[in-house]
Amino acid sequence: MAESLSKITAVFETAKELTMEAAASARNATAIFGEDGSFRPRDVQRYLNSRHEKEKLVGMKAIATLMSKGDDVTEFFPDVVKNSAAQTLEVRKLVYIYLLRYAQQESDLALLSINAIQKSLGDQNPQIRAMAIKVLSGIKVPSIAPIVLLGIRKSIVDMSSVVRRAAAVAIGKAYELDKSNLETLVGYLATLLGDKSFYVVGSAVQTFVNMCPDRLDMLHTNYRRYCNMLADIEEWGQVCVLDMLTRYVRIYVSKGRMVKKPNESFYSDDEEDEKEVEKEHEEFVIDPDLEMLLAAAKPLLQSRNSAVVLAVVNLFNALVPEADLSFLGPPLVRLLSRPSEIQYVVLSNIAVLAIQNNDLFAPYLKYFYVFPSDTPEIAKRKIEVLTLSCSESTVSEVLSELQYYATSVDKFLVAEAVRAIGRCAQISNDIARRCLRWLLKQIHSADPNLVGESLTVIRYIIQLSPKDHVKTVAKLALALDSATVPLARASIIWLVGEFAGIARYIAPDVLRKCAKGFMDEDESTKLQIVLLSAKLYSYYIEEKPVQEEKDDTDEQLEPTIKPSADPMDLLFDYIMLLARYDTSYDLRDRARLYKSLLASPSSTPLAKLLLQAPKPSPHAPSPSQGKEKFLIGSSGLVCAGVNDGRPLPPWSSETPDASIRDEVKVEETPVLAPLPKKVKTKTNKAKKETKKKKVVVEKIKNVKSKTVKKTEEDFHTTLDEFFGEPAATSAQAQEDEEESEEVVEEEESESEVEVIVEVSDDSEEEDSEEDSEEEISEDEDENEAEDGGSEEESGESGIDEEESETEDEDDDDDAAGRGLLSGQ
């Protein structure tokens, strides 16, 4: 019961503290912005100039809030710069963000914070050191370029990978600040490119791509290491590394090739088996280094980042296009479940891949079906991929799906579906006839959009082989009476005019029908009627017999009845007369042009060339046709008119030896950053006693031959000196001790061993090797200190750190030490 009450009390106290903190924050916000949200600059300055870190943090948060709203807070620049050396990490972060935003505008005042930022480069916290180099390189003031170089030079050899990564980013910023330091920065970047941490390599490669992408020779010794650590690099770093390695391979690694190899057979007794052995098969062989890269990149197809997946696809498509790339289909199809923006980018890349290999996505056609929730652009891309992946084996599935889309109420979807059917008709003549039969049925549809698009596609199909579709033109001429859509009527009349030279019995009758309702037709239809009349009249002039002129002197003309004019002449004059008085300027000009060409016999060849010229066979290319020059994943596939400017280099005909890619062992990076002070941990009691005894042994090592002859009382006096007790020793005695030290070295070493054996116990012998090495190093440091000390300190040189430790021990331990010495 008591425990439950205490827990409840603790909960209430915690809630009280949180409430008080919230109230304090509300008071601070009210003090700065007021209850109505009004801005109080004086209060912000007061908080920034406060001695308390919490109040400084409140002031910086207020400035960050104003910055997010788009307000100009440059008036607080001097007050903010004062806090660049704040003790709180949160305050420093906000100050650095402010400096990055306004340092270029207030370059003179920004220089006041350089000293504080430079001091932060030596801070014990790696995050502060990383932030310092980021801010130092982000201040775009040309006068601090040398200081930035010094900061980068110090950061690239830092112990923390966080700081080295920040240095990699800072190199790119320093290059933008002053491009004359390129060679120096490239040297720093080479150090980071060889870093063992994958956390650093990603940022270093991104800087390399932006600063010196053509210096691929710097990657020779790092190539295989990058392949091994590729899976560990961050996602956006993987994109840069994959692109860089793709370019490197095309220059320095040999291209994969097909090699003929003999078939192996276990049995060759029969003659047929011997013939089979002689046969050869082709096998795709690639370089081991290229194979290493492909093996390392293939697992990245399962990455959650779509950019990484596209980078891997680009790598395989650029390096081994001849190989079987069917495994690239599922990862790309998987990305179609992402948001619409990613879907559009992925579909644009899939369309280019389908142009290069239409069988790549044939097994996944159902994933490209259009959904009602798809945007028009995504629907257009999906329909394009369906038509590009269409073949004679899958045409039934694709056409049925496109015909369903053509009956939709969405005008955009209807137009794209009918155009896609026209692209499918280009596969073969059988498919073209099948598409034409369905399109002819749509002429009588009530949807004018469907009728117009269908007739446009019919015109394309007929033009592929005009002589095979004379009957189709006759059917279209009969459908002209029931067609009401202006675009449909104009298309039918144009087709009849194209066949005027083949089907002579169709065009004159169609022109006669159109002349009756000429005034009620749409302008586009009127233009096609005028064009049809001009084509027919040009054929009529060409076939009209030339009458010979008779001389008046030979024969006397007799009055005869003038025969009636030819119906074609009358029909042409009638159409031209109707067009002459039409309200359309374009129509009147067009009629005047045709009439002037056909009026005089001298211009008849020109009219024939203009009106009877054969039209080339139409080609309805895919919307993505011509984008194969862009790399997979580049912006040129998505944005029209955008050129990436960095095409892939061609394969090199002569590649260097693979030994240039052998890794070079790099020594450990020296640590320039300050390290925290070493804290000595206390050991168990047995180790402490052993350490104290070895201190006694160390003192014995320094005992001179002359002191061995001393009495026990004199010896105890010397031991008191060792433990720090005052002893009066003359300068002459000290000189005698120094002379005797050189005489007895071998005897001392033997006595040292004997003493060590006597004082060591079984438990002490089980100490680890690491403890013994530390003690030996401490002893060596003490000996060096003895040799470098003055004569006054030579009597006490064996004490140093061991003396400070033994002074804190009990008197019993001291007595034990003296007893040990007397026992010797």
TrEMBL record:
This is Adaptin N terminal region-domain-containing protein. The lineage of its organism: Eukaryota, Fungi, Dikarya, Ascomycota, Saccharomycotina.
